[in-house]
Batch of 3 targets.
Target 1
Amino acid sequence: MTRRFVALAVLAVVCAGVELVAGRGMSPGVVWDVVNGGGDATERHIFFQLRLPRLLVSLGAGACLAVAGLVLQSALRNPLAGPEVTGVTPGAVLGAVTATALGLAGWDSPLAVVLAACTGGCAGAALLWLLAGRGRGDPAQTAVHGVLVSAVLGGLTAMVLLVEPGELGSVVQWLVGTTEGRVWQHWHLLWPWALLWGAAAWLLAGPLTLLRCGDDIALTAGLSVRPARTLAVLCAVALTAGAVAAVGALGFVGLLVPHLAVAVFGADLRVSLPGAALVGAVVVCGADAAAQLSSRLPAPGLDSGRFTLPVGALTACLGAALLLVVVRRTPSRTF
């Protein structure tokens, strides 16, 4: 396990280094000069005020989404559970977009965005919980109801445009997910939120392990199932809301990264939860680096000064392909 953590940590450092030199406006040589204390004022501003906080936000958001997904899959005993398909992410997006459209929140007030996103995420999870009813333990039924809830919440988000069409740019950022333009204010808000709820998730590792074994075994072990599951879902919603408030909806990160983390670190959540955080950070950081490199090498005929590939678009495309592989290889997998 130690070697696996060290290997992932090294991979995270590599991805971070690639992301720092992948953006436009500065060559890798200039970035190296700035790191060594050189460069002019503009270059130092780009590196320290734009690239570095963007890197940290991508790492933090990826860790939050991965831990949230693993907590949800363990609490609901559903390998298809995740922030994207349980109403949490679309609900958080709806909350953030609505608050922004009403003038209650915005990029200049990230704390209000987090609160609005958390409220929306709780509402989305509650709606799924009500619709699933007695079949909430069935992975297939939960996934179907999750798609329905996501569609409804997505439709409500689109309706915001009818009221505030000027919010189109903001809505697109929330729906697709991007790390573009993230500054230190986003990071200063994200890291204590992620640390608080990440620690709470780790403290719930024991109850979550029992919940993975089934309600009957958990009750036999003396666990109060409903309060434990409620706390776990609340923790997952809070982590998702923090990530959504920082970068928007990054598709499939919270759904697929937990499977990879469990495959690498095993079913012991005391180990796999921090492992999932590290894997999620690597995935989002690597995807953001790839997106920036792709933006520097646009297809012929595109204006390279305007072409920008959002990291959320890349994670959605890759995640959809990986989800098909997971479903085809383990069609009847349950916890």
Target 2
Amino acid sequence: MVARTGVVVVGAGPAGLGLANVLRDRGIDCVVLEEQTRAFIEARPRAGFIEEWAVRALDERGLADKLLSTAPSQGRFEFRFENGRHPFSYEQWAGQRHFVYPQQLLVTDLVAHYADKGGDIEFGVRDVALHDIESATPSVTFTAADGTARRLGCDFIAGCDGAQGVTRRHLAGDLLTHDYGIGWLALLAEAPPSADGVLFGIHPRGFAAHMARTPTVTRFYLQCPPGDSEDNWPHERVWSELHQRLGVPDGPLVEGELIEKRVLDMHNYVHEPMCRGRLFLAGESAHLVAPIAAKGLNLALHDAFHLAEAIEAHYGGDDGPLARYSDTCLARVWQYQEFSQWLSDIFHSSTVDPPADPFRARLAQARLRRLLGSPAAAAAFSEIYIGKAADF
């Protein structure tokens, strides 16, 4: 371990590893600190849909070889409501697709590209603390996996350690939050996908979703009360609700063993600004968007690549991109936050019979009819759904 480096990256998720790979490949010294083991982060199931612009960005930086050679892609989804199927092709309107690549596979690729090619990374660290972040000589102290206390001086600290990490506690400015007032039961089933694309079920019993992960594993979501317990959802109840909310006569669901059940309370937050002194946050350290529109992983990569370019510009004598970093990233963050809220209204406002707010339920139904019936509305929706032209 060196006593000083250019950038200390706290957290080895997609944001931290994406940033570290680009910095190292461009000759900028960096060290990654990760609380968990390598085996843990390579196995942890998270997001699975990567927007085409993000795949292109990974490829341009030499980080997408395995993804491009193995990941299937999708350009359509299907609403299911009133016992019928309502397909929607966003590729038709936006010309781009999603790549289906579970986050743990991307993390595995990024770890291999970094750690196995000489990148400096410490797994299993604890007691991470930041020091002098508003000075020109910040540092990070931590306890290494072998129990040794260490201090690492640097030029910049990149906070990429997520919603529960230590780095976001150091931000000043505003923390803007939103609570949707609903929960989602997140499920992984050892079952092949029941459709060739995403299914969104809009049903009086609550929202449901189906998303392929691999040829043998499928992600499902069920709307539930916030704060609900996984214990309230045994196998039989889960599949009964999925069949009711997603099943249609010509589109049955394939059942399988449930290998993960987690209740997610749907909420969002945004830190403004995403930096303080020499500390710059990326990914869920800086902002959280509920999985309603599958945006979190894509935002993490967006932040990472902009931060890498800004740090590179600094070492080239130009601090303008670093000064603009927060505003640059927040432009897309807020577009994705707004879209998540818009889509949530369609998914959830009319899923209780009778609806909690009949007026909002009628608005959501009008939005859905417009989306399915208007080419102009379909094109506008598709651009933000796939992340095209989102930086405005």
Target 3
Amino acid sequence: MRVLVVEDEQLLADAVATGLRREAMAVDVVYDGAAALERIGVNDYDVVVLDRDLPVVHGDDVCRRVVELGMPTRVLMLTASGDVSDRVEGLELGADDYLPKPFAFSELIARVRALGRRTTVALPPVLERAGIKLDPNRREVFRDEVEIQLAPKEFAVLEVLMRSEGAVVSAEQLLEKAWDENTDPFTNVVRVTVMTLRRKLGEPPVIVTVPGSGYRI
């Protein structure tokens, strides 16, 4: 899942991004509304965590732009106000969910994951394929009932492949979904991560390389 965090309180923004990355999400961070619009125009995000009271361009205008573009991106709006009328106004702008500050990080994670599921075809909460079971909420992976410990990027790559339900996923698509925008597009990080993931998942191999196209399970 790829997430854009838009928050002018830099310490909070960076803390949220760090926490989401620990949950195997690819996260970009910006600190004002103008930068948010620039990123949204370039990258495809599953979820935007959007502070409402932003400098340069207000969060309301960012939300309106996402709606105008007809993007599948879901918006989780944050605000320091817990007033019901503010929440209603935010939802009427086109936000998909609303979370007042201060918030419990566990709730933020749950809401981001719930919104992320709404950007794609509905799938069961626990993904199963080729003897692999992956639980995104618990961040657990099992093969033939044996738990496998994965690093966050390995988990993210496996989740993207599992969600594709047998379709081929290119290295570029994996890079877009599992890494943030600071990753060198010419790096071999995808190939290395897939190799490590194959080794951890054990024999017989479940990740198939499709020459010239990508990978599938």
